[in-house]
TrEMBL record:
Keywords: Membrane, Transmembrane, Transmembrane helix
Entry's transmembrane regions: 21-44, 70-88, 109-137, 157-178, 185-206, 226-252
CDD domains per the UniProt record, alphabetical: ABC-2_lan_permease-like
Pfam families: ABC2_membrane_4 (PF12730)
UniProt key word Magnesium: no
Origin organism lineage: Bacteria, Pseudomonadati, Bacteroidota, Flavobacteriia, Flavobacteriales
Stated name of the protein: ABC-2 family transporter protein
UniProt organism field: Winogradskyella thalassocola
Amino acid sequence: MTAISFYISSIKNEFIKLKRTFAFWLTIISAILFPILFFIAYFLKHETNTPEAGINPWEKFMTIQIENSIPFFIPMFIVLITSLIMQIEHKSLGLKHLFALPVPKWSIYFGKLSIVIFAIITTYVYYYLAILLSGFLLGLIHPDLAFLNFQPEHLKYINMLTISFVASLGIIGIQFWLSFRYKNFIVPLGLGMFLAIIGIIVSQAPQSIYFPYSFSVLSVSLGDKMPLILGVSSVTVFSVICFLVTSVLGYIHIKKLNIK
C-alpha cells in the first residue's frame, strides 16, 4: 500500500469508530445548544428584540451569539471531544492493537488527528446552520422580528467562524498530543479545562497573544484591533505554528513510545 492508501484507510476506520461513540453525538449536541438558548431568549422577549424599521435583525442576532459563545465554548469543546475520541482507544487497549499491526504509526496518529479536526469542523457547520434555522423559525413565529425580511451576511459570519477555527488549531494540537499520550482520561481533560479557563481569564493581558488557550477568545474579542504579522492576524499565525510544532513533536514522541 502507498502512504496515501494507508492514510485514507486510517481515516475510514476512524470515521466508522467515531459514528458509534458519544463523541459523534456530542458534535451535534454542542452545536445546537447555544442556538437553542438564544432562540428561547428571543422567543420569550421578542418585543424587546424587535428591530427598528430598516434594520437587519440578523446582524445583532448572529454577532451576539458568535461573540458570546464561540470564545468560551470552543476551547472547552476541543478539550472534551479530543479526550473522548482518544479514550475509546485507551479504554479498549486499541492503541496497543493498532501499533501491533503492519501499519505506519504516522498514518494512525495523523488519521486520528484528522478525525478530531473533522469533528470540530462539523460542529462549526452544525452551529452555523442551527443559528440560521433558529432565526428563520423566529421569523415565522414572530414576524415583527423581521428575520424573513432580510438576509444574513453569510460571508461575514463564515469568516468570523473560520478565523475562530484557525485560532483554535493550537489547542487542538496540544490536546491531541496529551490525549494520545496519557491513558488516564482525567489527565488531558483536567489539564485542558484548567488551561482553557486560564486562557479566558488572561485574555485581557497583552501577552495572551502567545498563549494558545486564549487564541479563541482573542480571535473574536479583538476583531480589527488584532496585531498583524505580514497582514495576517497574529493569533492565527501563532496558532498554526503551534499546531504544526505540537503535531510533529507529538508524532515523534509517540513513534518512540513503547505502548503497553
